[in-house]
Automatic annotation (TrEMBL):
Its main location: membrane. The chain crosses the membrane at residues 6-25, 46-68, 80-97, 136-154. One of its GO terms (molecular function) is glyceryl-ether monooxygenase activity. One of its GO terms (biological process) is lipid biosynthetic process. It is a multi-pass membrane protein. Signal peptide: none annotated. The keyword Cytoplasm does not apply. Residues 83-216 form the Fatty acid hydroxylase domain. This is Sterol desaturase/sphingolipid hydroxylase (Fatty acid hydroxylase superfamily).
Amino acid sequence: MIPAVMYAIPAFVLLVAVEALSYRFRPDDGERGYDARDTVTSMSMGAGSQVVGFPWKAFAVVAYAGLYTLAPWQLSPASAWTWVLLFFADDLAYYWFHRLHHRIRMLWASHVVHHSSRYFNLSTALRQSWTPMSTLPFWLPLALLGIPPWMILLQQSISLVYQFFLHTERVGTLWRPIELVFNTPSHHRVHHGSNSAYLDRNYGGILIVWDRLFRTFEAEGERVVYGLTKNISTYNPVRVAFHEYAALWRDVRAADRWRDRMGYLLGPPGWAPRARERV
């Protein structure tokens, strides 16, 4: 099964080009715009993620199908209520997937790729992980609810297409009711900020209501500084893809206690063991 999002790739590339040209003809000194090397890296990461993700999607289909057959009921795709349930269940699953990938370092090692650019434009949306294996558990409950696997994959693609358009500085704030309910470029700029006030905020996919409900929402205020709290100085896609895994492995190897090793793996990014008191 070809993921639906792959059909949107030509449009993504075209829109990246259009946005890049918009900076050339209508520059804005307050916006970072594009950098050629950064954009090539982002698009290389996107291409690599599709190559790796294709066989992984096949495995995911098998997993979803297995649980779907075990579900106490199978919901009909002909029912509008099945689609309503899918929309909210998928978006909630994405929220927790996203939040935990920021709060658990072994998951962050995969997701950090998406935050590694110091620019924020449509090409940044394409800077995706080459290790998507940690995504599967968050959507398995949807199959157990009796939602057909093809519907789950389709809604995941719809969410990804929506989120592509969030990665831009060319759109300010939208009509207040939209900003209240939906994830918007303004909300997502906050999410990509390395400012202390913006760290670990605005995890939503299509909706921002989960962040408001679970108290992880932050409105855009001070100017956003994009990137990581400790940025990497490379445009090499392989290093971008695996640099945090390498750093995590070094920390785990250097630890001399199992509790510290588990802390590095399961603690938040930046976790370090407390210095032991000398007797």
